[in-house]
Specification:
Length: 953
């Protein structure tokens, strides 16, 4: 049973009154089935003019980007192009744009369609990864910031439609392609990228075929420093302020501190095959296949330290570890409660990591479309497609970790630099075998005779003592998610054209059936296998030929403050060789197996819509009105397996092993109905000046991870650090009431200025509440924490609906072209919310993620055969997530700017040479936690250059 909202009541009233009115004119409104003609005029100005025309002719608030020529998009990555649009910001992965945020709403709040269809995603959420489709295959991108009833639901932030080429739009023979080499400054490698398109029509243009193919390779190097998380109030002993007083407030301590170099081998192959057949003058049939194979294979090496809260202590100003009474010194915190100086020797791991984070994906979409002009008034379109996507777990290579290292002594200090300072104590730990870390001269004695730290030992000095004989085996992990996603959709769209210039001139109607089945299978080592060598045993010794000294280079993270204090050399090893070696020693396989907390989500949606177009006259100027309603019924079934925790046992000095019983089947279901009304008004006050208003309701469905039915234990550490997560299959969708007003002045062929205000009132936000849960074994006895002797109580995170938020903002844009050939695009987005993060409130469970201001400035010169383009983008800091990899607080991305350049010269009418430069000033991504000194990630992806040749015949 549904309650009619004020907005829906108003829309229905408007529709009723307009249906009886006269003197209203028709408006052509863009929709998913609209055909675009072939780009005949190429270049930057022509591309800007086409994009401007889409914006001008649309009924709602729409921005667009158009290719400059076949196979030539303005940027090398679709997400990088989208960020040039007002209100759109991006998240980067490996120096490439991957995910988008629109008007402060992150990737999962934006519906992304390809040729009007939802494509299956290899992402473990609902987000679409824009790096899976090459820009060379795309003709245009349309960003719908306001909603209509004809649009598929799901996008509170926006609906984005990616359009690829069609042979009937090209009309005749066409062949185009490009070849370029891409040089990565960090990796010092050059890799190839090739693309091509061939299209032709036959039988008096009644039959057409198009094939577009793109293959790209890229070898990257990412220089990184990272902390996986900051723990809150986890039992730091006797902390004190920098003035020596006892601290009583919240305490934030680092989980770890790593320096890492990640080498990525990126390979992307895309193909699009299209057949079109005009069965008659009234019927056109289109069949197409879209294919994407995108693989990222990584080889990462890192050096870092792992901290265990109860074993942390402090260091005196003189380097002593004990006070005058012989007591261990207390760790020091700053005014926020952040530990800024600590020392640890017991339970500390100094590790050298060999990691892989492979992303092996494949996506296909098979579609069939029939457009039938039934008579002069009625047009019907039938569209069906099946899309499949998968990501391989790769026997745990999707997230594989091999460690060598030693128990060690480390001092960790936080100051005004971005990068903290981790320095090694070098006295041998008497509790481990004598060969580990005996570095003469690195150990100092304080005046009172207690051991201390010698600050004269420089990073270069530490490197001098690297020795493959010192390392021993440690944690060995093979894990990851295997993802399979299948989307099946069938829809009928109809349009009745009254054939008149006033009154109700068009009625649009249709229905859609959509089914998505997404299976997420968790792979991991068998229970406890990962920790067979956790304690750095004396044997086996790691063969010297499996190890080597890795040199990160003197310029490693050199542009980031605090970098000069870290070692740039560390021990590295062959991870695969170590797995094979230890499997032979242990007589046991480390292969990943399917774990019992895997799950599958099946979602069926039946929708129907009705929308009317009206036109009238206001103050002797035409006014266009579109109003409609979309109704949807959603059925959700979530199934999976859950094995109950039977016991916890000690693995090593820090970790507890989780032992499970017989897995049980879990099957939960839910359903909900929604009614989504909309109205948009466009008033052409003059030929050049347009005013708009739009109101609508939109929704975004719950994230897939949050609906998982199983309890997943995420942390089981000694001393009571026990945490878990469980999903909620009964979650309801987010729902938003939206309002937009804007003014647009079109004063030239490719010049305009616009200003707009938007407001969104969103309900049903999902929040992660925390509760304490315990487990019982098969005999009904409570599971005990062997490190404390007490009942194991896990802090369990459980998502639920319950928060509302208001978001509003302004969008300003100015695009101008001069007769001299110069031109520019500039825009700004200012956005605000009543759901901001309060860093001092550790109990806050909700804040809006992705919210940030942004600026763009693009300047270009185009004259005859020569063109050059310089593009600058800035995004203010934003909350990316309310969680960390292994911490309690939020993940915040600091403000980021990037400068790109591209240029070309037409050798002939058909042949062009070009160059591109990405991230010219070598900016780095900086992520932090709750406070500015809570480093989470500093990543330098470097600068890239490309040169190539493009042909079009």
């Amino acid at each position: 049973m549904h309650t009619r909202t004020k907005l829906s009541t108003a829309v229905i009233a408007i529709m009723a009154s307009m249906a009886s009115s006269q003197g209203v004119q028709a408006q052509e409104q863009a929709n998913e089935n609209q055909e675009y003609e072939l780009i005949q005029v190429k270049g930057i100005r022509a591309s800007m003019a086409r994009a401007m025309d889409v914006k001008r002719e649309s009924g709602g608030v729409v921005d667009a980007i158009s290719a400059e020529d076949i196979g030539k998009f303005p940027d090398t990555n679709l997400a990088e192009s989208l960020q040039r649009i007002t209100g759109v910001s991006i998240d980067r992965s490996g120096g490439e744009g991957q995910l988008i945020t629109v008007r402060g709403f992150g990737p999962e709040f934006n519906t992304v369609l390809v040729n009007g269809r939802q494509i299956a995603s290899e992402n473990n959420s609902r987000a679409f990864s824009f790096d899976t489709i090459a820009s060379e295959l795309v003709n245009s991108l349309d960003v719908h910031k306001t909603s209509t009833a004809t649009m598929q639901s799901g996008g509170i932030g926006s609906t984005i439609n990616i359009r690829t080429a069609r042979p009937f739009s090209i009309d005749g023979f066409k062949i185009a392609g490009s070849v370029k080499g891409v040089f990565d400054d960090n990796s010092d490698e050059t890799t190839p990228q090739v693309s091509g398109l061939i299209s032709n029509t036959f039988d008096d243009d009644r039959f057409g075929v198009l094939l577009a193919v793109s293959h790209q390779e890229r070898d990257t190097r990412l220089n990184q420093a990272q902390i996986d998380g900051w723990l809150e109030n986890v039992g730091i002993p006797n902390p004190q302020t920098q003035s020596g007083e006892a601290w009583e407030g919240n305490i934030f301590s680092p989980r770890n501190y790593d320096h890492k170099v990640t080498f990525e081998d990126r390979k992307r192959t895309n193909a699009n095959l299209v057949f079109q057949y005009a069965a008659s003058d009234d019927i056109t049939i289109t069949a197409d296949v879209l294919y994407s194979d995108f693989d990222i294979e990584t080889d990462a090496t890192s050096y870092g330290h792992w901290f265990t809260a109860p074993n942390i202590q402090g260091v005196g100003d003189d380097g002593s570890l004990f006070d005058e009474n012989g007591n261990r010194r207390a760790p020091t915190v700053d005014a926020n409660g952040t530990i800024v100086d600590l020392y640890q020797e017991v339970g500390l791991a100094t590790d050298m990591h060999s990691k892989t984070f492979d992303r092996l994906t494949e996506t296909t979409d098979f579609g069939l479309n029939l457009e039938w002009q039934v008579n002069d008034n009625l047009n019907l379109t039938f569209d069906a497609h099946v899309s499949e996507a998968e990501r391989e777990a790769n026997n745990g290579g999707e997230n594989q970790l091999s460690l060598i290292g030693y128990a060690n002594r480390v001092r960790f200090q936080v100051d005004d630099n971005i990068l903290p300072f981790a320095s090694m104590f070098a006295e041998a730990n008497p509790n481990i075998y004598s060969g580990q870390q005996e570095i003469e001269g690195a150990f100092a004695t304080s005046p009172d005779g207690f051991p201390g730290y010698d600050p004269t030992l420089t990073p270069d000095g530490v490197s001098d003592f690297l020795d493959t004989a010192n390392s021993r085996a440690h944690v060995m992990l093979r894990r990851g998610w295997e993802i399979e996603d299948e989307v099946s959709q069938f829809k009928i769209d109809g349009e009745w054209d009254e054939g008149q210039d006033t009154g109700l001139v068009k009625a649009k109607f249709g229905m859609q059936y959509s089914k998505e089945e997404k299976e997420l299978t968790r792979w991991d080592n068998d229970t406890g296998v990962h920790c067979l060598f956790c304690g750095y045993p004396d044997a086996p010794a790691i063969p010297a030929d499996m190890q080597y000294i890795f040199d990160a280079g003197n310029d490693f993270l050199s542009s980031i403050s605090g970098s000069g204090r870290m070692p740039t050399q560390w021990l590295a090893h062959d991870g695969e060789a170590q797995f094979a070696f230890l499997e032979q020693i242990a007589g046991q396989s480390f292969d990943a197996i399917r774990r019992d907390n895997s799950f599958e989500i099946e979602e069926e949606i039946i929708s129907a819509y009705l929308e009317f177009d009206f036109v009238g006259d206001l103050a002797n100027s035409p006014i266009y009105i579109s109003a409609g309603v979309r109704m949807e019924k959603t059925d959700v079934d979530v199934s999976g397996t859950q094995a109950a925790l039977e016991s916890l046992t000690v693995l090593d000095a820090t970790e507890l092993n989780q032992n499970y019983g017989t897995p049980q089947i879990i099957d939960e279901s839910s359903d909900y109905d929604v009614t989504l009304p909309n109205v948009s008004i466009k008033w052409e006050f003059t030929d050049d000046l347009i005013f708009r208003m739009a109101a609508s309701q939109t929704l975004t469905r719950p994230t897939l991870e949050s609906m998982s039915p199983a309890v997943v234990i995420t942390t089981s550490r000694q001393g009571g650090d026990l945490r878990s997560f469980s999903g909620n299959a009964s979650l309801r969708p987010f729902k938003s009431d939206n309002f937009d007003v804007s003014a647009e002045w079109y004063y030239g062929d490719a010049s305009y200025a616009s200003a707009g205000y938007f407001k969104k009132e969103v309900s049903n936000f999902i929040v992660n509440g925390q509760t304490q849960i315990t487990f019982t074994d098969s005999n009904g006895n409570p599971v005990i924490d062997p490190s404390t002797g007490e009942v194991a109580s896990f802090t369990n995170v459980l998502p639920s609906n319950g928060e509302d938020a208001s978001v509003d903002g302004f969008e300003l844009a100015w695009q101008h072209t001069f007769d001299s050939g110069f031109g520019f695009i500039t825009n700004a987005t200012y956005v605000d919310s009543d759901a901001d993060l309060d860093p001092d409130d550790i109990n806050q469970v909700f804040a809006l993620t992705g919210l940030s201001d942004s600026l763009n400035l693009v300047g270009f010169y185009e004259n005859g055969p020569f063109q050059i383009r310089l593009a600058w983008n800035w995004r203010d800091e934003f909350v990316q997530s309310l969680t960390q990899v292994q911490g309690n607080g939020p993940t915040i991305v600091e403000d980021y700017e990037q400068l790109d350049i591209s240029g070309s010269y037409d050798i002939t009418d058909n042949l062009t040479v070009f160059f591109e430069g990405i991230n010219l000033t070598e900016e780095f991504v900086h992520k932090r936690g709750r406070y500015s000194n809570h480093l989470l990630l500093a990543e330098d992806s470097g600068r890239r250059w490309a040169v190539g040749v493009r042909g079009s015949f």
